[in-house]
Amino acid sequence: MELSEELSHYGELVKKKLSEAGIVIGDRVRVIDDTRVYEGILMPRPILGDENAIVIKLPNGYNIGIKIREGTRIEKISKVKHELKTSIIKEKTANNKPKVYIIGTGGTIASRVDYLTGAVYPALTPEDLYELIPELNDIAILETEQLFNIFSEDMNPQIWCKIAEKAYEKIMEGYDGIVIPHGTDTMGYTAAALSFAIRNTPIPIILTGAQRSSDRPSTDAALNMICSTIAASKAPFAEVAVVMHSTSDDESCTAHRGTKVRKCHTSRRDTFKTINGKPLAKIKPNGEIIMQTNDYNPRGKDISKVNLEAKFDDKVALIKVYPGISDEIIHYLIDRGYHGIVIEGTGLGHVPQNMIEALRRAVENGIPVVMTSQCLWGRINMNVYRRGVELLRIGVIPGEDMIPETALVKLMWTLAKTRDMKEVREIMTTNIAGEINVRSHYEV
Amino acid sequence: MNENLNYYEKVGLKVGLEVHQQINTKQKLFCKCPTIMVENGNFKTIKRFLRPSKSELGEVDPAALFEYMKHKEYIYEIPEEASCLVELDEEPPHELNQEALEVALMVALMLKSNPVDEVHVMRKVVIDGSNTTGFQRTAIIAMGGYVNDEEGNVEIKTLCLEEEAARKIAETEDKVIYRLDRLGIPLIEIATAPTIKTPQQARRVALRIGRILRATGMVKRGLGTIRQDLNISISNGARVEIKGVQDLNLIPKIVEYEVQRQLKLLEIRDELIRRGVKAEELESQIIDITEILKESKSKLIRKTVMEGGGVYAVKLRKFKGLLGMEIQPNRRFGTELSERAKLMGGVEGIIHSDELPGYGISQEDLNKIMKYMDVKDEDAIVIVCGKYENCKRALEAVVQRAREALIGVPEETRAANDDGTTRYSRPMPGAARMYPETDIRPIPITEDILNKIKSKLPEDPEETIRRYIVKYGLSRKLAEELIDSDRGKLFEEIVAKWSENATLIASTITYTINSLKNKGLPVENIKEESLKKIFDLISRGEMAKEAIPEVLEYITVNPNVDVEEAVKILGKGGISIEELEKIVREEIDKAKDVIRERGMKAMGLLMGRIMGIVRGRIDGKIVNETVKRMLEEELKSLKQS
Ligand SMILES: [Zn+2]
Fold first, then answer.
1. 8 Å CB contact of B431 and A248
2. Are domains B278-405 and B577-640 of this chain identical in fold?
3. Distance CA A78, CA A368 (A)
4. How far apart are CA A369 and CA B551, in angstroms?
5. CATH node for B278-405
6. For residue B21, how far is its CA from the centre of ligand 1 (angstroms)?
7. Predicted TM-score (pTM) of this structure
8. Is A108 annotated in the active site?
């Protein structure tokens, strides 16, 4: 870390006093004002709060903030020597263990805490993982790569492509499974993207993450990582899946099909749910995999059919309908040259009357419009009510029981292949990667 | 006391105190749940594990490792009305409770402690399951200040605001059950420097801090709402932390017993050195002696074998006689080994050679064991029964503790027993593992907040006691009783109007009410208004003070009856002097013969009869004066005639 960067959240007065005394972050300092004297290690400042309050770590481990005024003295006591060390545990090599490749994208599945400075360091080398989550040792031989290090919310279709390319490469190299640690916010989108981008994968491609940061003893990352590695190593299905806590308990994880999964809670461990389908499997940390459906692509060895189709057209918009919505939004998209629109309609797939003309204009301009429902649960049916029939007549494509986010990703993927309206309709209404179930089951 | 001080000075006693007090805020420290306890219900539960977070140096905290080694599963009961996703570690903490912060600052100012300018909440790693997160959120609010005491002021090190842990409901070999109602209740932690010099001083400092906390009127009362930890060490001994002391009066005893314990452990150490024992000679070689004892008549051993377990032993070279040595009342060195064995191995206890023959193990059995294990006369052995894995862990812990005897006093955390002795609970945590709680932004302590609190700072309780003594003439004991029972405010309200009855008022609202409470009566039915009415009646002479307990008791059981009515029902309505004189006249007339015969000596008899009629309805003193006066008049007129 650059020192100037570390000091960056301090105000001018503090910066001036520190530079005069030759103090940098990590030095042991003494702060003296009228009545008080404090000694401790100078810490970086959090972004929030008073920029002229310096943060020091006291010998008892606590941080406190002290307001620096003109008359305050800051003295340097000593430079703190502090080296980062990692103790390396040799992996127990056993050739019969499955080989799993881990592609880091950001979001930490394991980390170490530097209690001296309070900093949290992500850990992704196999050695780190074996040490922090020793159970992994017994499951698989891990190889790791930090492909990206970005926040979940900064994910985009270009990065989906890079991840897909890397996964494809590793499939071709013969790994038994792939685990992709990923921030949870947009994990569902990436899961859908990989489901379409990698055709006929013979091995499981597992996305996982943490709702509680990996630096804390209660993190969900450990169980998620253990179950993901188990799934990657030996699950009978060869699909893209999200593997995360089944419930709030640290008991088992659920593998959700990549095209049917959605983040449904801002903070709970069991935030991911399968919508309009059954989850693939329940996975226990003891290695047990209990399939929840018979309808899955089986694991195989044949890599000849694997196909990489990692292209996405990002000129696609997802619009949620609401009472009073204006048709201007649709006209804007047409005028700005968008290539496709997914509507999150009300109920069975409806929009208000005032949007009909705008949508007709879109279709007439060669912009496919796909209808999904903001109910999330259930299937689109535009034949029941008159408004639906009108929409069908102008050429809106029913998105069946696809969740809106999956329909968006699928339309991006489809438009990267073809802009032909007939072909787009054909692809969008055909099940490609488990995103459409033609039968709606009572029990999901 | 001086002699005492000399003794403790000589052994180099140093005591530090940590007081933990729950604050009575409406909401918890980091969420909006109420701070209530839920006793009954069918609670939903969740199951969790915690893993020690390794530091950048790859090392694990000894205390954290100790909990992890037990490999327990944690079950959390979820009372709907007193917990939310924050307690479940399923939602980030909300901002720090401002009300709690203000109470903490108030206490800080009362202790002359310096508030920090910006509060930074930290995560202190604790993995015994008592926090769902695996850490406790804690922040320093102020530093410095002091508690004044007759044996010298004691410095305050830190004043922290932290979250209370979940409460433990049950524990078995492989799991611990906690309830989440208590988790997150705000707690003030006040830590003194280790400069307390005597056992009595420790008690006084704890009492003084407790009174200051209560003076805020914002702390929780009742069992478990205030707890003190004691750090105790002597020269050449070690810092031992005794946690969770609830009764202040137990503190001096705990300190005395810990001094005794450390001195005895140092004696044992010296004896081991004299015997030439080396740590490396203490091997944890565990020997299976099940076969050797197959003929034994010991019920314990037969039961073990029947249940498929075994009997295992280790040899402690040159330890003979030391295991039976008493180090605290009724607790021997062997007890310390046994506690470790129980905790680490889950065995029921140990049997050691200093108490053999015994437990049904005969001299003959013992001889066989000694021969088989090649035990010399100077050695000791420790035996445990059960599953091999458990026994192995238990005996390894025993040997570990025996090795520590060579150093003298091991640093450790202990828990207080009711008699003032202590038991082992876990190794002393290493340097606190703390890192910033990044989910909560730093909180500035502004001049405005401090001024607001200064303007409503309560009176120092020492000052209040002095005022009660000087202004109202209360005894020190009664004044302290008022403060400690939290009834100072009530006292001042009542005494403001009837100040001539200060002592009576004070003793009524402390001793009298307490004794009714001890009888099991619902004293919460005594309203402030009723007390005021009682003193009003007394001052008007319409009720005698002797009737107070009876009237109060009546009100507790009949809460809908008001004081005047109760007085009437009980026949305790006051009588006037005229009425009294009439009664006295009648009684004198009835007793004329006796009066003639015995003169003033008839006073006792008359008083008895008259009090029987008027007791509780008029002040006894007035009765006495009236009877005396009228008897004298009677005798005078008799003489004249
Ligand atoms: Zn809550």
1. no
2. no
3. 67
4. 85
5. 3.30.1360.30
6. 20
7. 0.87
8. yes
